[in-house]
Amino acid sequence: MTVRRPLAATTGGTRPEPSHGDAGRDLALRVAQVAREKKGEDLVCLDLRELGAVADYFVLVTGLSETQVKAIADHVWETMAHEGVRPWHVEGMEHRRWVLIDFVDVVVHVFHPETRSYYLLERLWGDAIRVALPEE
Fold first, then answer.
1. At the N or C end, where does the chain have fewer CB atoms within 10 A?
2. Among candidates 18, 27, 53, 25, which has minimal Cα distance to 126?
3. What are the pLDDT digits (tens) for 62-95?
4. Contact present, 34 and 75 (Cβ < 8 Å)
5. Against a cut of 0.85, is the pTM above it?
C-alpha cells in the first residue's frame, strides 16, 4: 500500500495579503465541500473581510478523533493541491488536535472537538458574517 503525503506548503518569506475578492469565497466554499467528503462536522464559514483579519475567510470544521482530524486535513491539502491551490503554511499535523491550513485568502481550521470548544473561534470572531454553506 502506497501512502501519499501532501505536497510541501509554499511557506517562505512574508505572508502575502489576501485578495479581498470573490475568489476567497469560492475557495472557502470548495474547501468546506472537500472537508464534508471526509465526514467533517459542524462546518462554519466566516467572512472576515470587514474585520481586517489576516484572511478573508475562515473555514472551521470538526473531526471526531485525532485520526479523522488528520484525514480531513490531508484530504483538503491534497485535493486543493491537485486543483492547483497550494497552502502558504500548514501547522498542527503532528499533534492532530488543531490543524491550520493557510491558503492566504482562506484559513482552514480542522479541530478535535475538545480543542474547538476550548478556543471558541466562532465566539472570538463573533462579528464576522456567517456564510451559508450548501447542504450536501
1. N
2. 53
3. 999 999 999 999 999 999 999 999 999 999 998 9
4. yes
5. yes
